[in-house]
Amino acid sequence: MEWDSEEETTQKGMKMSSKILLAIITCIILIIILISVLILNMQRTTYSVVVDNTAVNVNKNNLITEVDNTTYVNIEEFAKLVQYEYHKGEYKAFTIQEDKCYVQGANETATFYLNDNKVCKLPLNHLTEDYQEYSISGTIKKINNTLYAPIDAINLAFNVIVSETENSFSIYTLDHLVTLYNEKVETWGYTGIDDQNFENKKSLLYGYLIVKKENGLYKIIDDKNEKEIVSDKYTSIQFTENTKEFFVTNSLGQVGIINLDGTTKIEPVYNSISALDKKSDLYLVQKDKKYGVVKSGNITVIYPEYDSIGIDTKKITNTVDSQYLILDTLIPVCKENKWGAFDKEGKKVLNVEYDGFGCNLETVEINGIRKGVKPVFTIEKCNGIVVEKNEKYGLVNTKGEELVPIAVDNIYEVENPENENSKYFMFYNGKELNIIERLIAANLIEDNSIPETQQENNEINNNLIDANSVNNSQNTVTTSTNQNDVNTSL
């Protein structure tokens, strides 16, 4: 009996131990669940960021947000992470504007514009140069009075690679990539890439390495596929981020262009090449001290036989976006001090016979009173281009049609016009004449806001006779497709 009692006591003890063990396990599970819940709750408010393999913690709500299933990044907060300066406004403007901001690194600046799908970059302290414009996937947004950008815009502006996961960013700066790849290429038997220029280093952001062999020749390697796309046969290779292509120079000093996939875009047969118009895939080339225009596939658009191509923007006050394109349509060329123009397909629109484009005169004397005026290069309302010949001025459109015969003494713009139709004038035969009104009256452009009167028509016809007399004596009037319409423009 005593033995049975002892056994029963043992069994009870084991059962008690099992219950205690079960309770402990249950408590441990509850603690693990509680910790997991706490960690999950922390992850909802804390975003883990790894910058160049160094982990940092930032508040997720301050750094990113979701807009239409797209991740948007707080530009100012990101700038702090990668040690860029952040400023409100535009780099060139020197004013604080809430709808713009720019960030500044050691080599360049990048400007963001509210509600726009672009980022504009500029080398540091190059205020006289034009911005390089880059398209982005979404538009810049203002959230809680702060500017946010999509990840591809962040990559562009800060020269980084961002890899996003559910709860973290992995950020690799360009300096870090250069250090990593510098060691890599040296093990391959190439010289380091840390001494290359800034633009060439940026090719790393797109997965390409420009490397130099001991013989001094350069080649291009596709890092993702670990293969050579351009062999070591060039004395220099220059990456251009804006067009994402490589400018290559051979041992003869001739320049060509290679695509990212290694195919030849333009054969290296020119003394120099530069981008003329990215949208039209046009390039300005120089060969034997003459200039021309080519496009992808080595297609000649304008044969290299001109002394210069493009307008000197320092001499033009109201020129448009590009010195190489007039009204985004015509390419100006100069040969033996005479000017003409081609369209983007290579068709000659204006014969090479003009002394220049634009009127640079800044004063005009009317009834004995001299007043200041603004010089004019183009008049967008009529697609007009001011042309000069024998110190007289006229107006042609982008189709090569004459709007105003080359007979007037000045074409200019006035300050603070009453309306758009009262902005441009020409001075002819001692009179100030409204250009837009007369083109409308002559049915050369449309605008129903200006009524025609018989008195205006008579004045136009009288001016026509005088203009034709001047032109016939100087033999400077270009033939028009519709001479009657052209004549009534004065």
* C-alpha termini separation: 135 Å
Beta-strand residue fraction: 35-45%
Q: Report on the biggest sheet.
A: 5 strands, antiparallel
Q: What is the global morphology?
A: flat
Considering DSSP H and I runs of 4 or more, what fraction of the residues is helical?
Answer: 10-25%
pLDDT averaged residue by residue? 84
Q: Spans of 5+ residues with little confidence (pLDDT < 50)?
A: 450-462, 464-489
Structural class from helices and strands? alpha+beta
Helical run tally:
9
- Extended strand count: 39
Strand order of the largest sheet: 5-6-7-8-9
Domain module count: 3
Radius of gyration: 34 Å
What does this structure look like?
The termini are far apart. This protein has nine helices and 39 strands. It has 490 residues and is α+β, with helices and mostly antiparallel strands. The radius of gyration is 34 Å and the shape is flat. It folds into three domains: 51-171, Copper Amine Oxidase, Chain A, domain 1 (2-Layer Sandwich), CATH 3.30.457.10; 175-309, no CATH class; 358-487, no CATH class. A hairpin with a 2-residue loop joins strand 22 (282-287) and strand 23. Strands 5-6-7-8-9 form a five-stranded antiparallel sheet, covered by helices on one side. Strands 29, 33, 34, 35 and 36 form a five-stranded antiparallel sheet that branches.
Q: What is the fold's blueprint, element by element?
A:
Layout: H1 2-45, E1 46-51, E2 54-59, H2 60-63, E3 64-67, E4 70-74, H3 75-81, E5 85-88, E6 100-104, E7 108-113, E8 118-123, E9 132-135, E10 141-143, E11 146-150, H4 151-158, E12 160-164, E13 168-173, H5 174-187, H6 198-201, E14 208-212, E15 218-222, E16 227-234, E17 236-240, E18 245-249, E19 255-258, E20 264-270, E21 272-277, E22 282-287, E23 290-295, E24 299-306, E25 308-309, E26 330-335, E27 338-343, E28 348-354, E29 356-357, E30 363-366, E31 369-372, E32 374-375, E33 378-379, E34 384-389, E35 392-397, E36 402-408, E37 410-413, E38 424-428, E39 431-434, H7 435-441, H8 454-474, H9 483-487
Parallel strand pairs: 1-13
Antiparallel strand pairs: 1-2, 3-4, 4-11, 5-6, 6-7, 7-8, 8-9, 10-11, 12-13, 14-15, 15-16, 17-18, 18-19, 19-20, 21-22, 22-23, 23-24, 25-26, 26-27, 27-28, 29-34, 30-31, 32-37, 33-34, 34-35, 35-36, 37-38, 38-39
